[in-house]
Design brief:
The complex is a heterodimer of chains A (213) and B (467). Chain A is α/β, with parallel strands linked by helices. Chain A contains eight helices and seven strands. In chain A, β2, α3 and β3 form a beta-alpha-beta unit. Classes of the chains: A alpha/beta (213), B alpha/beta (467). At the A-B interface, α4, α6, α7 and α8 of A face β1, β2, α2, α3 and α5 of B. The complex binds iron/sulfur cluster.
């Protein structure tokens, strides 16, 4: 996983609440057995005109009314959205697709739990700001397309072009993992002795938890 | 100190804790073909093993065909995913219920059926509807693929302590009101993100009176309120259901287990971070009209006018939803016509659901222009239904009787809605495109889906004589 320290990038505004993971990456792309290559299918049904249900992506016409198809937002690495972003299915294909497309951070007033977790596992920073701060960002971007934001994870701030700064909160453990790009499985493996001890206790205290068959 | 059942299960599973993040031990890990290939691949690349293969259970469900399976899966990409699961299970020594095993079915239907799900456990699966298993008084939640890999490798998961929410179901349900109606009403009241960050405990007399099937329907959709998990404290209904199932404890261990399970319910003085009361005493059968499960009304209601919502975000969502759903504000719900019916899924694909639907369609015929399918949640549900003759009732009424799997709940297999088709579905998500691109999904109970099948529009199933 790539570390996340600071990001100075273009913002794309997706003005919708409850963007679910079915919309981020529809079912026909979940048949892959790889993590990569999903960027072309991000927001498939919104992004392409007459998108076929077989999941083809070559030769499709893009829908100009969809915000990511607006050339002004080409190369955006920050996605701005409304509340409850990433709700629904647990599919990690959603952050994989966002990452593969180029997004490294998402700003919204709130996120769904599983999606929020999944972001951290893939080096994407989900930033939750207050609803009126998000509102400010939407109007800023509408007024000045091409708006860039600076997200600094160590100081936990989002800095606007005007230098106005919004602070955000983040769990300290997640923060340090993201800053260092750490392998969490490796970290847990270092605690193998504690896990062994727990299992021993568990066998004595709750022997029925080991399946009978 | 007085603790809730959520606190008790949590405390029981903390291996170690650091800066508010616990390393939580996982008792049961359920695996399906869609969210696991990359996790097994990760293990392989790092030279890791599955730490506790005997606590890990795999089953293909999302991609499997619901028509004749004897010739395998025709879509090569789906076939590869299903084969990959079988291969991974073999290579890593994990129990696997293959597509042709009678015990195969939707992961959330078969784990309880096999006695794999038990009270007081932590249960995870790379699937958001893992919440279903909370019906047994366990802490069951969905995880992503990286977390699947973490659990495979270490049997643990780093987690921060969830907040606790009590959802009190108040009052006695009117006749014909089902747990599906309860949970749709709950989501309608607290909103599709109302439970974010919480684990919900469902309480109240009406919950206690539910069968295990009903409790599973209730907990299944806790995720649709945004909650990490939902659960119901175990009691004799729970124990009676589990007893004698293949993977359930036996003999002496059974006695010990039950004694422990009886200590799980929340202490009388325990407090929750939030308590919500949902009164069901005058609830009508629920039908969703929008594109998230919180956009719901009673069968006696009307499609709302988006302008009636004061919150601008809610108003905008409702506008977009009505445009997508092709609905006009003010239309009585009972006048909305449907052409497709889907009865099945991990929400409503169990034997009780099929009995309830069969009762409504018995002696009737599917309305002209309607096509309806019944997809049992597992091979064992299918066998039981056939033993009771339910399949004959469905077939005689003109509904299709299928093989078990996820099917049109998400349409990863060929079971999909055509663009703009309108469907009464017993599943759990009415998101845009969920059942097929531009498909229009209305979530309802099995009784309501059956009533729509025979009338061609939403109908209060209680008004059909004999049902
Ligand atoms: S039935 Fe639907 S919700 Fe349940 S596991 Fe399958 S796809 Fe997911």
């Amino acid at each position: 996983m790539d570390a996340f320290v600071t990001l100075d990038a273009l913002v794309a505004p997706l003005d919708r609440a409850n963007v679910d993971t079915d919309a981020i990456i529809p079912k026909q792309f979940l048949k892959t057995i790889r993590r990569t290559g999903l960027g072309v299918a991000l927001f498939y049904d919104w992004r392409y005109k007459d998108a076929p249900s077989d999941g083809r992506t070559e030769g499709l016409k893009t829908d100009p009314s969809f915000i990511l198809n607006d050339p002004r937002y080409a190369g955006a690495k920050i996605l701005l959205a409304r509340e409850n972003f990433g709700c629904g299915s647990s599919r990690e294909h959603a952050p994989w697709a966002l990452l593969d497309y180029g997004f490294r951070a998402i700003i919204a007033p709130s996120f769904a739990d599983i999606f929020y977790n999944n972001c951290f596992k893939n080096g994407i920073l989900p930033v939750s700001l207050l609803p009126d701060q998000v509102e400010r960002l939407f109007s800023e971007v509408a007024r000045t397309p091409g708006t860039r934001l600076l997200i600094d994870l160590s100081s936990q701030t989002v800095v606007l072009p005007s230098k106005e700064t919004f602070a955000f909160t983040i769990d300290p453990v997640r923060k340090s993992h993201l800053l260092e790009g750490l392998d969490e499985i490796g970290l847990a493996e270092k605690k193998a002795e504690l896990i062994d001890a727990y299992e021993k206790k568990r066998r004595e205290r709750a022997p029925w938890l080991t399946p009978a068959v | 100190m007085a603790r809730t059942i959520i606190d008790k299960i949590w405390d029981d599973h903390v291996v170690t804790e650091e800066k508010g993040t616990a390393l939580l031990y996982i008792d049961r890990h359920l695996v399906h073909e869609v969210t696991s290939p990359q996790a097994f691949e990760g293990l392989r690349m790092a030279g890791r093993k599955v730490r506790r293969p005997e606590l890990t259970f795999a089953v293909p469900d999302h991609n499997v065909p619901t028509t004749d399976r004897s010739r395998g899966i025709s879509d090569p990409v789906s076939a590869l995913q299903v084969d990959t699961l079988a291969q991974n299970a073999r290579e890593f020594g994990v129990t696997h219920f293959s597509m042709n095993d009678q015990r195969q079915g939707i992961v959330h239907v078969i784990a309880p059926e096999q006695g794999i799900t038990l009270p007081g456990q932590t249960i995870v699966c790379g699937d958001s509807h893992t919440a279903t298993h909370g019906a047994f008084g366990s802490l069951a939640f969905g995880i992503g693929t990286s977390e699947v890999e973490h659990v495979l490798a270490t049997q643990t998961l780093p987690q921060s302590r969830p907040r606790t929410m009590e959802v009190q179901i108040k009052g006695r349900p009117p006749q014909g009101i089902t747990p599906k109606d309860f949970i749709l009403a709950v989501i309608g009241q607290i909103g599709a993100a109302g439970g974010t960050g919480y684990v919900i405990e469902f309480t109240g007399e009406a919950v206690r009176a539910l069968s295990m099937e009903g409790r599973m329907t209730l907990c299944n959709m806790a995720i649709e309120a945004g909650a990490r998990a939902g659960l119901v404290a175990p009691d004799s209904t729970t124990f009676d259901y589990i007893k004698g199932r293949p993977y359930a404890p036996k003999g002496d261990l059974w006695e010990k287990a039950v004694a422990f399970w009886k200590t799980l319910p929340s202490d009388p003085q325990a407090t929750y971070d939030r308590t919500v009361t949902v009164d069901i005493s005058s609830l009508a059968p629920q039908v969703t009209w929008g594109t998230n499960p919180g956009q719901v009304a009673g069968i006696d209601g009307r499609v709302p006018d988006p302008e009636s919502f004061s919150d601008p975000v809610v108003r905008d969502s409702a506008k977009k939803a009505l445009a997508y759903m092709g609905l006009v504000p003010g239309t009585p719900i009972a006048e909305i016509p449907v052409t497709r019916i889907f009865i099945g899924s991990c929400t409503n694909g169990r034997i009780e659901d099929l009995r309830a639907a069969a009762k409504v369609v018995k002696g009737r015929k599917v309305a002209r222009g309607v096509s309806a399918m019944v997809v049992p949640g597992s091979g064992l549900v299918r066998a039981q239904a056939e033993k009771e003759g339910l399949h004959t009732v469905f077939i005689e009424a003109g509904l299709e009787w299928r093989e078990p799997g996820c099917s049109m709940c998400l349409g990863m297999n060929p079971d999909q809605l055509a663009p703009f088709e309108r469907c009464a579905s017993t599943s759990n998500r009415n998101f845009e495109g969920r059942q097929g691109k531009n498909g229009r999904t209305h979530l309802v109970s099995p009784e309501m889906a059956a009533a729509a099948a025979v009338t061609g529009h939403f109908t209060d199933h209680r008004t059909l004589s004999g049902s």
